[in-house]
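Can you give me the bound-state structure? Components:
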Amino acid sequence: MLNRYPLWKNLLLLMIVALGLFYAAPNLYAPDPALQISGQSSATLIDERTLKRATDALTEGGVEFFGAEVGERAASGLIRLRQRDDQLRAQRMLKRALGDGYVVALNLAETTPAWLSDYGAQPMKYGLDLSGGVHFKLEVDIDSAVERRMETFFVGSRKLLREEGLRGILKQDDTGAMHGVFKAEQLRDDAIAAIRKTYPELVVQRTAEEWGLKATLSEAARKEIGSYALTQNLTTLRNRVNELGVSEPLVQPQGNNRIVVELPGIQDTAEAKRILGKTANLEFRLVATSDASASSREQFKFRSASRAGASEWLEREIVITGERVSNAQSSFDQNGRPNVNISLDGEGGALMHRATRNNIKRRMGVLFIERKNRTRYEINEQGEEIIIKTPYDEKSVITAPTIQSALGAQFQITGLDSVQEASELALLLRAGALAAPMDFVEERTVGPSLGAENVAQGLMSVQVGLSLVVLFMVLYYRVFGIAAIVALSANLVLLIACMSILGATLTLPGIAGIVLTVGMAVDANVLIFSRIREELVNGLSPQMAIHSGFERAVVTILDANITTLLVAVILYAVGTGPVKGFAVTLSIGIVTSMLTAIMGTRALVNLVYGGRTLNSIQIGGSRK
Amino acid sequence: MKTLDFMGKRRIAAVFSLVLITVALGSLFIKQVNWGLDFTGGTLVEVHYSDVAQLSEIRGTLDEGGFAGAVVVSFGSDRDVMIRLPQGYSDKDGNRLLALLQSTYPGEVELRRIEFVGPQVGDELREQGGLAMLMALGLVMIYVAFRFQLKFALGAVTALVHDVVITLGFFSILGIEFDLTVLAALLAVIGYSLNDTIVVSDRIRENFRKIRKGDAAHTINVSLTETLGRTLVTSLTTLLVLTALLIFGGEMIHGFALALTVGVVVGTYSSIYVAANVLMLLNISKEDLMVPVKEASSEDGGVV
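Here's the bound-state model for the whole set.
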């Protein structure tokens, strides 16, 4: 029969909308303001006792809270507050009550009921422009990483030529390229062969000069250094961000040489930048001999839990710091035992050589340095409580192997017990330093009040915009208008459900995208309705007109929407930040609107008019 | 419905469009665009004062504090102040400026936002934006040429360029700041205007195949008349929500909403007049749109 959907089709649509409602529902539950407690080191457990101390402090300070809970594996704890205004005050109280071993971060705790979250339904995350916080973009200086590596090759090559007895002059220019001049052709060719063999990363060529050579870094090696520097800096930044104790930080690469760091809820950007930008937290020092004077040595504890309590006396003099470490990788020696390969830059290699050549069979200690804060509370002259933070360095020994021979820019730490130990050691050595320096190239801070205001304004615009469209559609298209509005609402629900499922972040331009989708989604319906009207004017019966109106409009709708989708995809591919958020919303909106506007409206119109004998229907203006 | 004679006025429309484009291009050339922080690089600090902010006092404080070249304007309300520093200040100066304001003002100075964009990022964004625009236009042209016909593709792209140039010109003439969100809006205008143009083109194609009598102008007139209702209703609903965004969306979204509003109005006009006008100019005819005849039939000696 004309204009009747089979039962299964109606049920399918109903099911899709029901699923949409289910996955969009978590967004209705406003999150609770909360405080998240975690230990400064991963060994600190947050148990009921810790929580008790925290909640006692809040009760004493008169802050209303509820639902204190211990997180997974007791790694963190969460306390929900009644009032958002209390958050900052409560954070200060907890920091004070718990002391320096703990990190207390502002958080918004989800309130999704279990019957939703058990099936993976989660609310959308707010972007920084809505939640408040800091966005940093850092640029990794890859050129300088390349230069550092070339320096290592230069020092190594010079040594190599000397050892092989290939006399000549080797120099390095500003770009890091090496130039060599030799007395004889044979010498030059031997030198080229030797350098090529030892450093496959280099491209070594003859030059027009009388017995000259030029060595530059190969494109592949340059790329590798670039991607290594990026991953390495990313790892280091992640570790440092964890020190800040932000509840949901984001650290991700962008392009070939950029890193984006987003810290929701952070206000103190100066502190954040200090921690993100710090360098050099490794020190190599010789283990002190037993006859060393007390003033020339220092005692440090071992870092690893397996050697807890053990300590080592190290010389005060620092051989090199972590800045000089350009790489550390775990691998195996020729006997298949795990070891760690360390590369230093040119200067580091020279310093290391000088310190070790006369100290073979002594041991070299590696110190890991973490910067921590000691907090004190004092009352100033005005009677206000002020917080005084004194930073201090916590230093611990991560390893102290015996020096087997004079070390240069590249050496190994052997005699490790397990692969795991080797990879942990490599990680610590790398975490100590950045593979390449970084600059802040972009920074955006959004205060909490602006974020809240953006949310309110965004919501308001959606509500007003939607109401205006509803009003117009119902007044203009009557019954058909109501069908379109129902479909539009379903579209909104599906759009929000899709964004929630995909874990998309909601931003202000994203909200604008939703608003725009509302405006444009009705377009498909308008197209269909005008088509039906035309068919009526052409003299078709109402049922026939509805049928062919839908059929013929679909082609147009597809064409129009696919082209718009093309634009949205380009927006996503090329755009950054806010533009991307807008593109995501727009693309999802286009897809869901096609489903609801074509199939959804059809189902509703079929339910109302299908299978009946109609003399006339009203659609946009006069009754036909 | 009576067929409206759109194409009869096509010369007037063409002159109108040309004048608009000339003015827009002229302004873009002479006044250029008031590029926002995203594109120029620099530092921006927005603060909220607990009382009405005295802009001249703030300027004085900043001058003494060594922030030469700082532009101080009120933003939204008389308590909200936006301060822009030109390029050359470092990423630490935003915080320094905030601290200075907070220490010299007796009341509360609340941080709303700080933005710092380095010079390299700004240049890149501008390049990327231009690239996005060109890519969007190129892809659209290919899709339309493939799905419709080359003349339609030229018409559609001309309409899009027309809309983008005029919207850009609007921003240039009024000196409204052009930031990333406005760029997004401009790309959305491309999407929207394209939607409109495709719907009209679709009808023109259909009618060229269907209507046997009358010339091309007549066929286009019929098509435009038939789609006029839809074009106006859709533009109206979109403008309704854009009005909501303009009024309630707040300062940060204002440029976005404004660009889209202008774009939708221009886009509606261009889908009626510009795309169809180009088709007329290119002498569109029935033959361009006939379904291609299968090779086999001509080999059989069949005449079509």
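A couple of observations. Chain A has four domains: 7-25+451-623, 32-109, 143-222, 226-446. The mean pLDDT of chain A is 82.
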